[in-house]
Specification:
single chain, 430 residues, alpha/beta, Aspartate Aminotransferase, domain 1, Aspartate Aminotransferase, domain 2, 2 domains, four-stranded mixed beta sheet, binds pyridoxal-5'-phosphate, PyrdxlP-dep_Trfase_small
């Protein structure tokens, strides 16, 4: 496959844009280097690059594109919004409509606020939790990504129940000291953390189904126990549903699992492809936010008509009959096919899947936490990734990311993908 234009554009990009990319995961560092593909057009489940090669896309823009690229209803909604004026700086009816839609779908959102990204949404829930509890510390789970605010770019300390250390240059030690990181699915480590720091902890941040070291489900009872322990110690439970909301059903992962947080952060899918974030939760907590309360949060672009229109249109598409059944059916086909091919080629592999989102790990262990995901074979993933790309299958360039199906993928796309995977596994095995 000729990708000369991508090569040229990447050289040019590196002259002007730091690292040639505007988000580090787009560089191919996670797959041993290489040239990112410059896409120029996308429609449904497909991409076309600058050399006119066609790809079946499983990146889904890291999650938002569940309705497929350039969905006509979403494109039309954005066009109408643009014609009516892109940004007012006043309240609009669209914000009411969208807030009501989110509340109807995710009932724990007694009140909501719109922001511009998942990062902002999570960052604000932390501020609000601190304002509500009068405490400073937060707990998060190892390997979970919650955006790039200082507060969550903190790595685990030297053992369970130790304070964190900065995970990025520029994050101060003082900030890191406010964050405790414990292994996901390890309720004893969480209990020990609360026993040690319980009266200083404002909130725990939870991806109820993890999307950031592959798709990892909570062990039975884990989230219920997190809720019980957290509340017992007077802290709040925040769900980061930036990846998970509307991914497995029309509603949140909390509705899918039947366990409910005090506050929720949203993003990705709810914008239908435009920048968005939202947060919400119990009304007595949300009342801490300005203009009603002392916790400040604002945004020039927050609740802008284009993002609202795009989000409403996207949720309308997702509310149609059969959407999640289709995603699940194709997910099942893909999982079964990948596992059969791995066995055929004697490659150790395992798939974690929830409906239309899955991760293929190279290793034999069941993946329930970050250490296990980290121990999977990155070199084999890189070979697989590059082979798939060269055969026109676009995956996320990291062994930790998920494959996201869209409602536009077809059985035929899965069959083609599995044909490519047959060859890719052979290359891994060679
Ligand atoms: N939370 C989770 C679970 C995410 O996966 C991400 C992004 O990947 C974020 C928060 C940050 O969202 P954004 O990239 O919109 O700032």
């Amino acid at each position: 496959m000729n990708r000369n234009q991508s090569e040229l554009l990447f050289s040019e990009a590196q002259e002007h844009i730091l690292g040639g990319v505007n988000s580090p995961s787009r560089a191919f560092k996670g797959v041993g280097g290489g040239t990112p593909v410059f896409m120029k057009r996308a429609s449904g489940a497909y991409f076309w690059d600058e050399d006119d090669n066609q790809y079946i896309d499983y990146l889904g823009a890291y999650g938002p594109i569940i309705a497929g690229h350039a969905h006509p209803a979403i494109s039309q909604a954005i066009q109408t919004a643009a014609e009516n004026g892109l940004l007012y700086g006043t309240p609009t009816k669209l914000e009411n409509q969208f807030a009501k839609k989110l509340k109807d779908a995710i009932p724990s959102l007694e009140k909501v606020r719109f922001v511009n990204s998942g990062t902002e949404a999570v960052m604000t829930t932390i501020r609000v939790a601190r304002a509500y509890t009068g405490r400073d510390k937060i707990v998060k789970f190892a390997g979970c990504y919650h955006g790039h605010s200082d507060l969550v770019l903190v790595a685990a300390g030297s053992g369970p129940a130790t304070l964190g250390t900065p995970d990025s240059a520029g994050v101060t030690k003082n900030i890191a000291k406010e964050v405790i990181t414990v292994p996901f699915n390890d309720i004893e480590a969480y209990r020990a953390t609360l026993e040690k720091w319980g009266d200083e902890i404002a909130a725990v941040l939870v991806e109820p189904i993890v999307g950031n070291f592959g798709m990892v489900e909570p062990a039975p009872g884990f989230l219920q126990q997190v809720n019980e322990l957290t509340h017992k110690h007077g802290a709040l439970v925040i769900y980061d549903e930036v990846i998970t909301a509307f991914r497995f059903m029309y509603g949140g992962a909390q509705d899918y699992l039947g366990v409910y947080p005090d506050m929720t952060a949203l993003g990705k899918i709810i914008g239908g492809g435009l920048p968005i974030g939202a947060y919400g939760g119990r009304v007595d907590i949300m009342e801490k936010v300005a203009p009603l309360g002392p916790a400040y949060q604002a945004g020039t672009m927050a609740g802008n008509p284009a993002s609202m229109s795009s989000g409403i249109a996207c949720l309308d598409v997702l509310a149609e009959d059969g959407v999640y059944e289709h995603l699940n059916h194709l997910g099942e086909m893909l999982e079964d096919g990948l596992m059969k091919l791995a066995r055929k080629h004697h490659v150790q592999a395992t798939v974690n899947r929830v409906k239309g989102a899955l991760t293929l790990y190279f290793g034999s262990e069941t993946i329930t936490n970050y250490d296990q995901a980290n121990a999977t074979n990155g070199e084999q993933f890189s070979i697989f990734f590059k082979s798939m790309l060269n055969q026109g299958i676009n995956l996320a360039p990291s062994k930790f990311e998920a494959w996201f199906l869209t409602i536009k993928h077809t059985e035929q796309d899965i069959i083609k993908t599995l044909e490519a995977a047959d060859y890719a596994f052979a290359e891994v095995a060679a």
